[in-house]
Amino acid sequence: MLIGLLARRDSPNRKRFTKHNSHEGKALRFGFDLSPLFERLHEIAAIAAEVLKEHEQIDYLRTKIRAAANASLTKNPKDEIALNTEVYTGRGHTILLEREKTKRRTMKLRRLQHAKSAA
């Protein structure tokens, strides 16, 4: 109500109800009036569309940063700037866990290959 999206229409007894006049086709409505909200519907929809556009832009840029960081980490796995970028975008811990799993799998495969070649 403070920003003008709702209006309150108080009845004499402070209750919410509607009183219809069937002869004139009118009604007295007491309680919350949503007409100010509907009057500004186009403005609110435009603001919502702008926010969605901004979120899409943020997601696009975040993906672009992740791709650049991933390419940098592929070239140099110890690149601190790229690692910090991944931590900032929320994927650093996941990437480190994936690397540890890959390292364990690689070591296991190398041991098996060594055992086969030694036999």
Notes on the structure:
The chain has a three-stranded antiparallel sheet, with no helix packed on it. The protein folds into two domains: 7-39, no CATH class; 43-118, no CATH class. The protein is built from four helices and three strands; from the N terminus they run E-E-E-H-H-H-H. 64% of the residues lie in helices and 13% in strands. It is rod-shaped, with a radius of gyration of 31 Å. By secondary structure, it is of the alpha+beta class.
Brief summary:
64% of the residues lie in helices and 13% in strands.
Feature tags:
4 helices, 2 domains, rod-shaped, three-stranded antiparallel beta sheet, alpha+beta, 119 residues
H/E topology pattern: EEEHHHH
Shape: rod-shaped
How much helix, percentage-wise, in residues? Answer: 55-70%
Tell me the number of strands.
Answer: 3
Report the major sheet: 3 strands, antiparallel
Domain count: the total is 2
Strand order of the largest sheet: 1-3-2
How many H/I helices? 4
Q: What is the gyration radius calculated from CA atoms?
A: 31 Å
Average of per-residue pLDDT values: 79
> Distance between termini?
82 Å
